[in-house]
Amino acid sequence: MASETAIEALELQKSYGDVAALRGIDLHASAGSVLGLLGPNGAGKTTAVRILTTLLPPDAGTARVAGLDVVADAAELRSRIGLAGQYAAVDENLTGHENLEMVGRLYHLGRATSRGRADELLERFELTDASKRLVRTYSGGMRRRLDLAAALVARPPVLFLDEPTTGLDPRSRIGLWETIEARVAAGTTVLLTTQYLDEADRLADRIAVIDDGRVIAEGTSDELKDRVGGERLEVRIGHDCSVQDALSALSPIASDAPSVEQLTVRAPIQKSAGTIAEAVRRLDDAGVWIDDIAIRRPTLDDVFLALTGHAAEEPLAGDEEQAAA
Amino acid sequence: MRDALSDTLVLARRSLLRIPRAPDLLLAFTVQPIMFTLLFVYVFGGAIKTPGYDYVDFLIPGIVVQTISFGGFVTALGLAEDLKRGLIDRFRSLPMARSAVLAGRTLADVALNCLSLAVLISVGLLAGFNFSSPPHEVAAGILLMLLFGYAFSWIFALMGLTASSPEAAQSLGFIAIFPLTFASSAFVPVDSMPSWLQAFAEINPFTVTVDAMRALFVDAEAENSVWGALAWTIGLIAVFAPLAVRRYRHAVSV
Question: What does pTM read for this prediction?
Answer without folding.
Answer: 0.83
